[in-house]
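My main concern about presentation is that the manuscript never shows what a single data entry looks like. Each protein is reduced to its one-letter sequence and a matching series of backbone shape codes. For the editor and my fellow referees, an illustration may be useful. For illustration, here is how one protein appears when written out as sequence plus structure tokens:
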Amino acid sequence: MGNRLSKIYTRTGDDGSTGMADGSRVSKADSLFSVMGDIDELNSHIGLVRAHLAQIANDQGLPQRLQEHKEIDFTQVLIIIQHLLFNIGGELAMPEYEGINADHISWLEQQIDAMNNHLPPLKDFILPTGSVLVSQLHVARTVCRRSERQAVMLQQQRAQAIRPTAVSFINRLSDWLFVAARFCTDPAQVSEVLWNNQVLQDLKIDKQ
């Protein structure tokens, strides 16, 4: 980045528009900014996952699978994901810029497979809960799904506004976050919380 921000507020957006890299101004209500905002929110949630991970590493130690499978550098993967999400934001702001390519998608699929190889088969639906770390991964996953929906909507409206590789990466990232939530579940502390139909069957409603 050649130019550094020397002043944060410019007042130019007070009319409800935002300046693009090419000098044009676009309404903040444009669906492009819905995608940008969701990607920014998703990146912030990934940052929170990193913060939780660092905290538990200092306080109580890493979850069991992260200790057993050190070949999976979970923290480094999170760092790379944050940079790639930032690149997607760059692509949205500068359509001529390519920050995501097919190799990045293949890399993410490899990370999914590396974790999934150490997990038991999934035999039932998982509820989005568990430890704080696992729950935060599920929150990030749901934000990622929303980002994908907004990205697909933008793609259908203006195909040139977002690269297909960016949409594919977001899709694969939601899969990574789901598998990561399972991988970070420590069997010795908190088991995966499965959907249990018996809970609703036992529900007693006081009808007045």
User: Anything to note?
Assistant: The longest strand covers residues 17-19. The mean pLDDT is 86. The longest helix spans residues 31-59. The chain is about 60% helix and 5% strand.
